[in-house]
Amino acid sequence: MSPKLRIQLSSNKVYHPGSTVTGSLLLDVDEAKSYKQILVQLSGRSYVHWRESSGQSSRNCISLEPYFDSVAPLWDSRQSPDGKLPPGQYNWPFSFVIPPSVPSSFEGKFGNIRYMLVGRIVTGALKYNHDVMALIPVQQLVQITDPRLLQPVRTEVQKTVGFLFSTSQPIIMSVAVPKTGFFIGESFQLHISLENGSKRRVSLTATLKEYVTFAASGSSRKISRSLYAIRTNRVERQQTEHLDKTIMVPLTDVDIVHKSSCRNIRVIYCIKVTCHIPRAFNLSTTIPLELANCR
Fold first, then answer.
1. According to the model, what pLDDT value does residue 11 have?
2. What is the average per-residue pLDDT within 206-222?
3. Domains in the chain, ordered, with CATH?
4. Residue 129 contacts by C-beta under 8 Å, 6 or more apart in sequence?
């Protein structure tokens, strides 16, 4: 019969770098057991993996970045005269300190950053160990410390639509934000000016984007998703529009992985504004943003 092994945390909260994880390893045994050792282990690492093919060959792209690995022994067979764990109910307290510079937990398509708490019964040679596991959520406290992130930013792009001998006046789009550093849950005004000098009706979209880059074995994979998006009315041909739109940074579902704390997973944010032009390539511009969760 398998032992009843459980992890009980003192708090089911989200932990931060530098904070302490406390709890107990609980074990119920109904008869004496010939165990070698009982321990608790807390470890953190980032892991990236995908498989890529080229012609007839393929390879696994893997990157493992360990952050820490702490072990707390709770019981050893040398503590018992006969080398066995007597029957009974056991409650072993444990405590670990998360290192101060580790990145936030993260789950992605090609990789993750995880902090795993493992309770283990070491049974000895030729026998399976008994494990119980729990994921520990860790969130970095990221502040806006660079004063440049509090300054307004404006960008302008343009495009001429038409063919070699039949071109119109350009489409000129400018985008401005009051600053580029924002807290999760914060809203801000996005100003868009569009001078449509073409002979086509166009439309605009503004999207708060998340881009994740996974790096392994000298290669990379990139994915993106939209956190917030708005679409404007059409702008008629040879007309100018000035628009002010409110963009909201979500309170949840935002992954803040500081670029200096993880080498194989990078998360960046930007506001992307696109002018959709019929029968032509769209006109787009982006403004990089920094998101924070600690004031």
1. 86
2. 96
3. 4-135 (2.60.40.640), 147-292 (2.60.40.640)
4. 120, 121, 122, 123
Residue 105 scores a pLDDT above 80: yes
Per-residue pLDDT for 294 more than 90?
no
Whether the Cβ atoms of residue 173 and residue 277 lie closer than 8 Å to each other: no
Q: Global pTM?
A: 0.88
Sign of CA dihedral 159, 162, 163, 167: negative
Q: How large is the average pLDDT for residues 58-64?
A: 96
Distance CA 293, CA 255 (A): 10
User: Please, are residues 47 and 111 in contact by the beta-carbon 8 Å criterion?
Assistant: yes
> Quick one: average pLDDT of 223-236?
93
Match 């002018």 to its residue by tokens: 275
Angle at 293 between CA 10 and CA 70, to 5 degrees: 40
pLDDT band at 95 (very low <50, low <70, confident <90, very high): very high
In contact, 95 and 70? CB cutoff 8 Å: no
